[in-house]
Amino acid sequence: MRPVIGVISDVKARDGHVVHGVTEKYIYAVARGAQAMPVLIPGTISAVDADMAPERVVIDEILDLVDALFLPGSPSNVGPQHYGDAPHDPPLPADPHRDDISLPLIRAALERGVPLFGVCRGFQEMNVALGGTLFQKLYAQPGRFDHREDSSLDIAGQYAPVHEVSLAPDGVLASLAGATNWRVNSLHGQGVADLAPGVVVEAQAEDGTIEAFRVPDAPGFNLAIQWHPEWRFWQDRLSSGVFTAFGTAARLSAERRRGGARLKAAG
Ligand SMILES: N[C@@H](CCC(=O)NCCCC(=O)O)C(=O)O
């Protein structure tokens, strides 16, 4: 049996309905890259219909169910009220029903040693959940590059590597890459402003933008990456290494939770 990795869903309006869902590339990277069983975790109920009662969310119930947690990217932004700011541009997409689940879940997962991996929005959520702040418009910050994708390109062009990051020489990423520099893709308008206390930088862009971090004192595997390693992870040594390491941590967590029964990666 594969380890179970909970994947946090976005909550979006579509055709008059509210949909809780995740882009397929993330599900595939968890299933094939981490060799795990992805299970989608819904956000809080939006109660769009006045007759719907809000559902009770019990964070511990989710953590009892999964061996590890994955926080995917999304075009939406973490609500700035969570880091003590007002929205600078209200039309930018928000997802309060994802924030309601992901922020407390991150803190609880780290405390309980549940392996945790966040990508792009997930990376930003991890920084905010731990007390850090975000630039709402990284591209408007003096001296910073524009880290947004070129939307005139096709999808493969948008996710192609566009800039270099320096990897901390003693970090997890450098050891997976076997190098201290890597070329990565870049599709984000926001970015880390103040890094949360207690985290260490794993990767940084040339303009100073923090691109990856981890919480060294948390008892389990954890990693936050601003770029998109899920995109065609099998074509990039570091991307596949990251999902393999996450899957290994999820398997160990599953073995511990199931009393030492060995879980094998599928061939
Ligand atoms: N809203 C944030 C987060 C960026 C992000 O997660 N983008 C992902 C886009 C779609 C995808 O590949 O899932 C920001 O813009 O900084």
From TrEMBL:
Keywords: Hydrolase. The keyword Transcription regulation does not apply. Pathway: Amine and polyamine degradation; putrescine degradation; 4-aminobutanoate from putrescine: step 4/4. CDD domains: GATase1_2 (cd01745). GO terms for molecular function: gamma-glutamyl-gamma-aminobutyrate hydrolase activity. One of its GO terms (cellular component) is cytosol. One of its GO terms (biological process) is polyamine catabolic process. SUPFAM superfamilies: Class I glutamine amidotransferase-like (SSF52317). The keyword Cell membrane does not apply. InterPro entries: Class_I_gatase-like (IPR029062), Peptidase_C26 (IPR011697), PuuD-like (IPR044668). It catalyses: 4-(gamma-L-glutamylamino)butanoate + H2O = 4-aminobutanoate + L-glutamate. It comes from the Bacteria. Its EC number is 3.5.1.94. Belongs to the peptidase C26 family. Involved in the breakdown of putrescine via hydrolysis of the gamma-glutamyl linkage of gamma-glutamyl-gamma-aminobutyrate. This is gamma-glutamyl-gamma-aminobutyrate hydrolase. It comes from Ancylobacter aquaticus. The lineage of its organism: Bacteria, Pseudomonadati, Pseudomonadota, Alphaproteobacteria, Hyphomicrobiales.
